Amino acid sequence: MKALTYHGPGHRFWEDVPDPEICHPADAVVRVDATTICGTDLHILKGDVPEVEPGRVLGHEAVGTVERVGSAVLGRRPGDRVLISCITACGRCASCRTGTYGQCRGGGWTLGHTIDGTQADYVRVPFADTSTHLVPADVADEAAVMLADILPTAYEVGVLSARVAPGDTVVVVGAGPIGLAAIRTARLYSPSHIVAVDLAPARLEAAKRFGADIVVSADDDPLTVVAELTGGAGADAAIEAVGAADSFELCTRMVRPGGHVANIGVHGRPATLHLEELWSRDLTITTGLVDTSSTPTLLRMLATGRLDAERFVTHRFGLAEMEAAYDVFSRPADTGALKVVLFR
After folding, report:
1. What residue stretches are annotated with the Enoyl reductase (ER) domain (predicted)?
2. Starting at the edge strand that comes first in sequence, how are the strands of the sheet with 214-217 ordered?
3. Does 134 lie in the same domain as 8?
4. Does residue 121 share a domain with residue 99?
5. What is the rounded CA–CA span in Å between residue 278 and residue 294?
6. Environment class of residue 58 by beta-carbon count within 10 Å: exposed (0-12), middle (13-18) or buried (19+)?
7. What's the pLDDT at 238?
8. Is-contact 175 158, C-beta < 8 A?
């Protein structure tokens, strides 16, 4: 089969690799019908995730059709149309039993990380019963694949961790796909204001379309904008959706005493925690890997029209156009790309 493989920082290839096989009774092999590219894949290609070994098939998001299942798989059968979660969960370990599937002792983020992923014709999915979701018949592939990662990540690691509440002032730093998903899901809680901060004018325009009330360039002193908006108090919540030291530090300066900073971004370099300024401000700072515990809820919202996920998709390609899709996705300032989807 064909797959997109990583061969060290800056090196990727669309090439022939062996077809996946059932390795464990709880596995399923799924034909990939739609997949996408994540900002985390770009971090891998920059060398920010050193545990990814050369030769690894990238990708951790897909919708597909079950081809084969292991003898221990009870809830999936060949022919089922499924959403493949970015998180692999055994469902039995101590972490899974508390719903923190991202910290699964035998899983977590494995696809495209420690095992071969979804940017391929076929993928092996461990723990298929608990790592896939049946897709309602009236939900399009390109909408469903947005629930593999960006929407649950933004909702859980961003909005829920930041404890967004009605009437809050929320700042989202970074208006890429994750930041836009955070804006969209934050609106479920009726905040008074959502402020989006980014450097790219096109992404600030996108933030307006996705529900930001105020947009501000990172070069235009967002600290002052937030201070004026809140009477000098600061935001109730700040969500970091870039993965850069200056963005994280900006978030810690924009929240009020007692406020929340939720870090979503994947950081490849250290960030400074200014405890000399923060120790007395009663801040809560959270980090995290998505658990995908919200995926069933988001799927129900998608199926009933309460959530519009297709609006994230700006470019569509065939699977064989993987290299072109990466080129478009990696240059959003030039291409206007938010999410690209590749179809069989």
Report:
1. 10-342
2. 214-217, 193-198, 169-173, 235-240, 255-263, 284-286
3. yes
4. yes
5. 31
6. buried
7. 98
8. no
Collect all residues with Cβ–Cβ distance below 8 Å to 150 and sequence separation of at least 6.
Answer: 38, 177, 178, 181, 312, 339
For residues 51 and 78, membership in a common domain is answered with: yes
Q: What is the pLDDT of residue 333?
A: 84
Q: Tell me: the pLDDT tens digits for 245-287?
A: 999 999 999 999 999 999 999 888 899 999 999 999 999 999 9
Q: Which domain holds residue 187?
A: 152-286
Distance CA 150, CA 152 (A): 6
Question: What confidence score (pLDDT) does residue 170 get?
Answer: 98
Residues 282 and 306 in one domain: no
Q: Which of 286, 305, 322 is the last residue of a domain?
A: 286
> In Å, how far are 30, 80, 111 from 288, measured between CA atoms?
28, 31, 17
Q: Is 215 helix (H, G, I), strand (E, B) or coil?
A: strand
Determine how β-strand 313-318 pairs with β-strand 339-343: parallel
Q: How many domains is the chain partitioned into structurally?
A: 2
Tokens of 132: 């896939």
Same domain, 275 and 158: yes
Separation of alpha carbons 112 and 47, rounded Å? 14
How many Cβ atoms from other residues are within 10 Å of residue 184's Cβ?
A: 24
- Give the residue among 237, 245, 240 at the shortest CA–CA distance from 274: 245
CATH number for the domain that contains residue 327: 3.90.180.10
In this structure, the answer to whether residues 90 and 211 fall within a common structural domain is no
- Residues 272 and 269: their CA atoms lie apart, in Å, by 10
Q: Are 324 and 14 in contact (CB under 8 A)?
A: no
CATH number for the domain harbouring residue 200? 3.40.50.720
* Average pLDDT per consecutive 10 residues, the chain (344 residues; last block may be shorter): 96 96 97 96 92 96 98 97 97 95 95 98 98 95 96 98 98 96 97 96 94 95 96 97 95 97 92 92 96 95 92 96 96 91 95
